Amino acid sequence: MTTLTTSLEELGWIPPKEVVALGSAGIRTAGALLEWFPRRYEDRRRFDAFPVAPGGGAVCLRGRVNDTRNRFGPRVRFYEAVVEDASGAGIGAARITCRWFNMPFLSKVLAAGQEVVLYGKPKEYRGTIVIDHPEFEVVRDAGGPSIHLERVVPVYRNLSGIAQRRLRELQYQLLEEIDPAALAGEFDVDASYPRHEAFREVHFPESLEQAAASRRRFALEEFFRQQLNVAWRRARIDDCSGRVQGRRTALLKAFHESLPFDLTAAQKRSIREVRGDMMQPRPMNRLLQGDVGSGKTFVALAAMLLAVESGSQAALMAPTQILAEQHFLTFRRWLEPLGVRVALRTANRDEATHLPLEGRPQILIGTHALLYDHDELPELGLVVIDEQHKFGVAQRARLIERGERPDVLVMTATPIPRTLTMTIYGDLDVSLLDERPAGRGKLVTALRVKPKQTEVTKFVREQLDQGRQAYLVYPLVEESEKLKAESASEAHEKWCKRLPRHEVGLVHGKVDPEEKESVMRRFRDGGIDALVATTVIEVGVDVPNANLMIIHHAERFGLAQLHQLRGRIGRGEHKSYCILITDGRSAEAMEKLEVLASTADGFVIAEEDLRLRGPGDVLGTMQSGLGDLRFPEFLADTALLREARALADRVLAEDPRLGHRHAALRRWILEEEDGDRVRA
Ligand code: ADP
Ligand code: MG
After folding, report:
1. How far, in Å, from the CA of 434 to the mean position of ligand 2?
2. Please, how many CA atoms are within 13 Å of residue 184, restricted to the half-sphere of its CB?
C-alpha cells in the first residue's frame, strides 16, 4: 500500500531517470512529492487578452508560435519567439515577442507551429510589446479531458530534468493511487477539512478559491509547527535557571552621568525592560529593535554594566571585525573612566584596556569567533548579539546552549513590519527604540531623475571641500552583460578623474576582506574622502562625518536595503543628503523611491515594503532563519498566526514535554533542532 513514506522507486511507475531528477531536488518519497506544492496557479479556462501596452502585472496567454530565431546583440545573444493569438487567428491577429537571453538550447524546445501557454510581464522594447523570459509550456492537446488545459492548473517551482506538465502528471497519478487514510498528518490542525481533500485541492483545485482554502490549511500546519517550536524553546528557557543580575545600579548611574547627552526616552524605557528581565531568575531572551542611529549601543552598554556590577562578565558579538573594533572604541571611551576592563578579540586583533591585563576582562567584544572560545568567560552572565540578521536563529540557539544560560540581548537594525514580528521573533520579548536622539543634523532625501553628471559632481565636490565625506553607491560590482547599469569598479575610475584633489576609495563584495577592512578603516579615519561602494557598507558602520550619499540606479535596490544604506549618513551634526538617482522609467520603482523620500521612519518603510513586495520577498531577503517558506502569501495573516499559536499552546498545555500524546511532534522538534545545529 502506498503511504507518505513510500519511496519513489517503490511506487514502481516513475522511470529511473525521473526518480534521479526528483531525488536531486530532495524529493525521495511520495510524501515529499505531494508536499512539493504548486507555486502558483493558472486559470486555463480563460486566458488574458494579448496586451497592447506595457505595464500592469503578469499575464497568462495562449497562442501559437509564429516565428523563432536566434539573435545576436552587441553583448548578448538571445532566442526570440513571436507568438500569435490563436483564438482570433488570421490576418491582424495580436502578437507578442518573447525573448530569452543566453538560452540557445530553447531552439530545441520551442518551434514554429507549436501551441503554447505563456506567463510573464509585458514591457515595451523599441516600439513592440515583449515579454522577457516568460514561463512557457508547450500544449499537447490529446483531446478529451486534460489536467493541463480547460481548468485551474498548478504551476510548480522548476525542477531540472522534469517538465511542468510531467510533474503535474506525476502528482495526478500519485493522488489517484494513494490511500486517503495515509494522507493524515502527525497532528490534525483542522478536523473539519480532511487532509486528503486538501492535498487533492491544493494540486488540482476546481477554482482559485479552492486553491486558496487548501493552501491556508497547509499554511496553518506550517505555522503551527513553527509556533510549537517557538513555544517549546521558550518553555525550555523558562525551565532553565539564570543569574539574577541588575539589582545594583551604581555603575549604570555613573555611566549615565558621564554622558554628554541625556538618553532618549526610548533608550531609558528599553534599559528598564532589560533590567526587569535580568533581575528575573530565568534567562533574558530579548530583542532590541531600533532603526540605524537610534542608539542601540548605549542600551547594550547599560545592560553590560548591570551584568558587570553583579559580578558577571558580558560579551558583545558583532558580525564583522570592523564593527567589533568600532564597538571596542566606543566602549573604551565610555568605560575606561569607570574602571571597567574591556577587551577586544577578533581573528586579527587582540587588545584590552588597562594593559597589561589586571585580571579577566569584564566585557569582551569580538566577532562570532567568540562563540567557539569561552575560556575567558567563565562568569558569562550576558551576551549581546549585534545585527541579528547576520547571525541567524540557529547560531543564537547554539550560543544559549552553553552551561548555565546567560541573559541574551539581540540587537537588530532591520525594522520588521509589526505584522511579521511574531513570525520571526516569536520566542523573543521585544524592546523598541522608536525615537532618534536629538542633536543630529537634518537628513534630506531627494529623488532625481537622470540628473546632469556635472551638477552631481559639483555637489559632491562642494561637500568634500567643506571637509565632509561621501558614499557613492552602485548596485553592481562589475560590468554586467544583462544589466546595463554602471558598475562600482567602472564608476570608481570615473570618480577618481572627477575628484582629482580628493582621495576616492572603492569597496565591494569581491574585494578581499582584509582590503575591505582597510579601506573602511581609512574612510572612517578620514584618509578617504569619497567611497565608491556596493551594498557592503550596509551594516553598522559609523562615520558621523560622512553626510552625503548618492545612490545610483536606486531603482535596483529594495526599499529596506535603501533605508539601511541611508542610515549610514545623518549620524553627525551636519546636514546630510541622500540623493537617489534613477532613470524614471518604471512607475513601480518611482513609487518605491517616493516612499523613501517621504519618510525616515524605518517601520513605516518596512510596512510599505511589505505592501509593495509581499511577505515572501521581504522575508526572503532578511535571512530570517525560517528556511523555505512554502506559503509566503499567508505570512502577514495575523489571524492565521494566532490560530497556529493557540493550537501550539493547547498542545503544550495538554502535554508539556510532548511525552505521551504528542510524541511524534517531539520527535519532529528534536529533528529540527539537529538540523539547525548542522546548518550553524
Ligand atoms: P545604532 O547602533 O542604533 O545604529 P548607535 O548606538 O551607534 O546607534 O548610536 C548612533 C550615534 O548616536 C552614536 O554616534 C551615538 O554616540 C549617538 N547617540 C546615541 N544615543 C544618543 C543620545 N541619547 N543622544 C545623543 N546622541 C546619541
Ligand atoms: Mg549599531
Report:
1. 14
2. 7
Instruction: In the chain, list all ranges with CATH 3.40.50.300.
Output: 250-433, 443-622
Q: 543 alpha carbon to ligand 2 midpoint, in Å?
A: 12
pLDDT at 300 over 90: yes
Which residue carries 550560543 as its cell?
399
Ligand (nearest to CA of 571): 1
298 lines ligand 1 (CB under 6 A): yes
Is the CB of 294 within 6 Å of ligand 1? yes
Give me the pLDDT at residue 437, please: 85
Question: Apex CA 461: angle with CA 542 and CA 526, to 5°?
Answer: 35
Q: Which amino acid is at 608?
A: E
pLDDT of residue 322: 80
Query: Which atom in ligand 1 lies closest to the alpha carbon of residue 296?
Result: 3
Residue 516 Cβ inside 6 Å of ligand 1? The answer reads no
What are 37-70's pLDDT values in tens digits?
A: 999 999 988 889 898 887 778 899 999 999 999 8
Q: Which fold has domain 443-622?
A: Rossmann fold (3.40.50)
Does the pLDDT of residue 484 top 70, yes or no?
no
CA angle 663, 667, 673 (to 5 degrees): 140
Helices 418-425/638-654 angle, 10° precision: 30
Q: Report the range of poorest mean pLDDT among 172-181, 336-345, 410-419, 610-619.
A: 610-619
Ligand 1 pocket check: which of 288, 298, 335, 387 to mutate, most ligand atoms within 8 Å of Cβ? 298
Pairing of strands 77-85, 95-101: antiparallel
Please give, one letter per residue, the 3-state secondary structure of 571-601.
CCCCCEEEEEEECCCCHHHHHHHHHHHHCCC
For residue 539 the three cell numbers come to 551594516
Q: Nearest CA to 374 among 402, 409, 408, 404?
A: 402
Name the residue of 255, 256, 257, 261 to mutate for ligand 1: max ligand atoms within 8 A of Cβ: 261
How far apart are the CA of 25 and the centre of ligand 2, in A? 39
List where CATH 2.40.50.140 sits in the chain: 46-150
Provide the pLDDT confidence category of residue 149 given band limits of 50, 70 and 90: confident
Instruction: Report the pLDDT value the prediction gives residue 135, as an integer from 0 to 100.
Output: 86
Q: How far is CA 340 from CA 58, 260, 267, 300, in A?
A: 60, 19, 22, 15
CATH number of 250-433: 3.40.50.300
CA 358 to each of CA 204, 250, 341, 417, 472: distance values in angstroms, whole numbers, following the listed order: 71, 22, 8, 46, 45
Buried b / exposed e across 612-630, counting CB within 10 Å, b at 16+?
A: ebebeebbeebebbbeebb
pLDDT of residue 680: 43
Q: What is the pLDDT of residues 246-298, one digit of tens each?
A: 999 999 999 999 999 999 999 999 999 999 999 998 889 898 988 878 899 99
Among candidate residues 442, 361, 369, the one with its CA nearest the CA of residue 399: 369
Pick the CATH number of 46-150 from 1.10.579.10, 3.90.550.10, 3.90.580.10, 2.40.50.140: 2.40.50.140
Nearest to 605 by CA among 557, 573, 569: 557
Instruction: Return the CATH class of domain 1-43+158-183.
Output: mainly alpha
- Segments of the chain assigned to CATH 1.10.150: 1-43+158-183
Selection from 471, 457, 632, 458 nearest residue 541 by Cα: 471
- Residue with the smallest CA separation from ligand 1 atom 9 is 295
pLDDT over threshold 50, residue 2 = yes
Query: What percent of the chain shows pLDDT beyond 70?
Result: 86
Element housing 215 (H / E): helix 208-239
Q: Rounded to an integer, what distance in angstroms lies between the CA atom of residue 201 and that of residue 208?
A: 10
Q: Is the pLDDT of residue 481 over 50?
A: no
With cut-offs at 50, 70 and 90, classify the pLDDT of residue 147.
Answer: confident
